[in-house]
Amino acid sequence: MKTLLATLAIVLSTSPTLAQTGLPAAAKSPLLIAHRGASGYLPEHTLAAYELAIAQGADYIEPDLVMSKDGVLLARHEPLLARVELEADGRIKRGADGRPLLHRTDTSSNVWELEKYADRLTVKQVDGRSMGGWFAEDFTAAEIRADIRAQERLRDQRLANKAHDNKYPIPTLQEVIALAKTHGVGLYPETKHPSYFKAFTEAAGLPRLEDKLLQALHAAYGNTREAPVFIQSFEVSNLQYLRGKTAIRLVQLLSAAGRPYDLSLAGDLRAYQDLALPAGLDFIKTYADGIGAHTHLMIPLAGGQLGTPTRLIAEAHARGLLVHGWTFRAENSFLPTEFRREGQALGDMAGQLKAFLALGMDGFFTDQPDLGRAALKP
Question: What is the Cα–Cα distance from 94 to 4, expressed in whole angstroms?
Answer without folding.
Answer: 39
